[in-house]
């Protein structure tokens, strides 16, 4: 379009911003925002909402709030985009503040806004507030809880360690639980090492979704955490027999408009020698600052030295090392991972943010971690 001398309109910009949101392409999104301003394209409710959504879901929540506050008109979707974005970034209190302000402004939350409020409570550990919202959905907001709302409720209880309550809630649901609901409880069982409930939930999941590799992996991991190596091996052998595969963990980082992808132990990058030098420096400096590798995250039966090596080669650590050598001091480093960030990498990245004085934003499947000066926005609750 640009080569042909055509100027995009509001619809073009909304479509492009949506693409940036899905790709977590923040720099391109910022360029589009500048293009909108330069070409004096009217920022109506739809385009304003797309900008808020893009910034929020790319982890630039400050810019999302700035755009939001500058909008002359906001609808339910605009407020919802900010509430959900803040929830994803672990800013539960801030998300609920806007949730309340939305109602004060005269707008009634819809079903998606309520999902955002419940996610905010879940990620911030605000369990009692979340229970109150869920229980008042029908009476206060006239919204019948859907399976998405039940999934958020189960996830919230599970994250807080209230496994028995979460399991009981699933039994009382008026609809058949899906992968999101059961998967949330199974993930909580992994975090809290509840093997008894995990086996029951995994059985349900495998009956409903026999080809989903994630359920096998989580159950195998829980067995490994419990040092039940034979059971863990049996689950992985069952996966092989059924020819079920699971995508490997990978981390993406965008530098100068180019996206670089890393997998565990990756040495395919053209700058691998320099990346591994930085990785060594990173690990050395964080150890001096108090980092001790969490070997419980290694879910295979191997000796302690092998476990530490395996942890050091996680994809997010490689992406972070690349980010440190490829960006100027003071520039935030943004990483996207397709799986949950492990507790060892989480602890290491907190210290990297401190010793290198860098802001580091890591997005996994459904939330952001914003690391600054040795702490994380999730307050170690994720």
How would you explain this protein's 3D organization?
By secondary structure, the protein is α+β, with helices and mostly antiparallel strands. Among the domains are: 176-246; 250-376, no CATH class. The chain contains 19 helices and 6 strands. It has helices spanning 10-23, 26-38, 45-57, 61-70, 76-88, 92-104, 111-124, 127-135, 137-141, 147-159, 163-172, 179-191, 195-208, 213-225, 229-241, 272-288, 304-312, 315-326, 343-355; strands spanning 250-255, 258-263, 333-337, 360-363, 368-372, 375-376. The chain has a 6-stranded mixed β-sheet, covered by helices on one side. A hairpin with a 2-residue loop joins strand 5 (368-372) and strand 6. Helix 4 (61-70) packs antiparallel against helix 5 (76-88), helix 11 runs antiparallel to helix 12 (179-191) and helix 12 (179-191) runs antiparallel to helix 13. The two termini are 43 Å apart. The model has no long low-confidence stretch (mean pLDDT 88).
């Amino acid at each position: 379009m640009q080569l042909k001398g055509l100027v995009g309109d509001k619809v073009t910009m909304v479509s492009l911003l949506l693409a940036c949101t899905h790709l977590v392409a923040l720099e391109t999104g910022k360029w589009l925002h500048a293009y909108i301003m330069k070409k004096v394209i009217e920022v109506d409710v739809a385009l304003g909402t797309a900008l808020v959504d893009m910034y929020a879901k790319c982890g630039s929540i400050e810019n999302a709030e700035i755009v939001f506050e500058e909008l002359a008109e906001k609808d339910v979707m605009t407020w919802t985009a900010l509430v959900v974005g803040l929830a994803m970034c672990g800013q539960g209190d801030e998300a609920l503040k806007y949730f309340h302000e939305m109602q004060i402004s005269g707008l009634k939350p819809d079903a998606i806004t309520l999902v955002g409020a419940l996610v905010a409570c879940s990620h911030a550990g605000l369990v009692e507030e979340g229970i109150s919202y869920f229980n008042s959905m029908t009476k206060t907001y006239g919204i019948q809880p859907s399976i998405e709302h039940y999934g958020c409720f189960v996830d919230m209880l599970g994250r807080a360690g209230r496994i028995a309550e979460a399991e009981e809630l699933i039994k009382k649901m008026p609809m058949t639980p899906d992968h999101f609901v059961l998967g949330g409880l199974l993930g909580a069982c992994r975090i809290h090492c509840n093997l008894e409930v995990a086996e029951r939930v995994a059985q349900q999941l495998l009956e409903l979704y026999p080809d989903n590799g994630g359920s096998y992996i989580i159950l195998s991991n829980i067995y490994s955490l419990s040092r039940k190596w034979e059971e863990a091996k049996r689950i992985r052998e069952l996966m092989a027999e059924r020819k079920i595969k699971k995508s490997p963990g990978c981390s993406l980082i965008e530098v100068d408009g180019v996206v670089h992808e890393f997998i565990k132990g990756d040495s395919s990058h053209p700058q691998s020698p320099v990346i591994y030098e930085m990785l060594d420096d990173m690990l050395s400096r964080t150890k001096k600052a108090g980092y001790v590798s969490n070997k419980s995250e290694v879910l295979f039966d191997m000796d302690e030295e092998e476990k530490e090596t395996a942890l050091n080669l996680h994809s997010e650590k490689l992406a972070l090392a690349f980010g440190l050598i490829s960006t100027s001091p003071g520039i935030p480093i943004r990483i996207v991972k397709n799986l949950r960030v492990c507790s060892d990498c989480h602890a290491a990245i907190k210290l990297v943010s401190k010793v290198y004085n860098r802001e580091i934003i890591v997005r996994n499947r459904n939330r952001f971690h914003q690391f600054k000066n040795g702490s994380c926005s999730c307050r170690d609750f994720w």
